[in-house]
Amino acid sequence: MLMCWILFLQELPKLLQDLATTDADLPWNKSKNRFPNIKPYNNNRVKLLSEPGTAGSDFINASFVSFIATQGPLPGTIFIHTYWPEDNKPMTVFSDILISKVSEEAFPDWTVRTLKVEKVQTAKFT
User: Fold this and answer.
1) Which of 16, 70, 80, 97 to pair with 7, CA 20 to 30 A apart?
2) pLDDT tens profile 47-65
3) Are 117 and 99 in contact (CB under 8 A)?
4) Does residue 30 contact residue 55 with C-beta atoms inside 8 Å?
5) Domain chopping of the chain, boundaries
6) What does residue 69 show for φ and ψ, rounded to 5 degrees?
7) Is the pTM for the entire model greater than 0.70?
8) Cα–Cα distance between 76 and 95 in angstroms, integer?
9) Which among 92, 95, 98, 94 has a CA at the least distance from the CA of 118?
10) Distance between CA 24 and CA 28 in Å, rounded?
């Protein structure tokens, strides 16, 4: 196991050629970084849907790993710990967001899930 870890660490620089974090340093994104020394790599950061005319609206200090992880989320940040449906449920609902599991492939050390995320209309009863 130790040898596998050493080989992984030797190959890591090849996997992460672009280690720039300049997106996090843009003036409109700086306030979104809780810690000034913890920033996502430009080539691996989670990109939100941008709002036209709003600089930095696609930025959140989070990176894709084998799951989405935030680095030092701010106190007002919404964070969902488990966002995919449980094994015995086809879907999960969070407020007006419906998350369905499209596929799942299990590997020895991780699982790859394809999810469908939809905004649903909520019924109003009077």
Assistant:
1) 70
2) 888 888 888 888 988 887 6
3) yes
4) no
5) 16-77, 80-126
6) -130, 135
7) no
8) 17
9) 98
10) 9
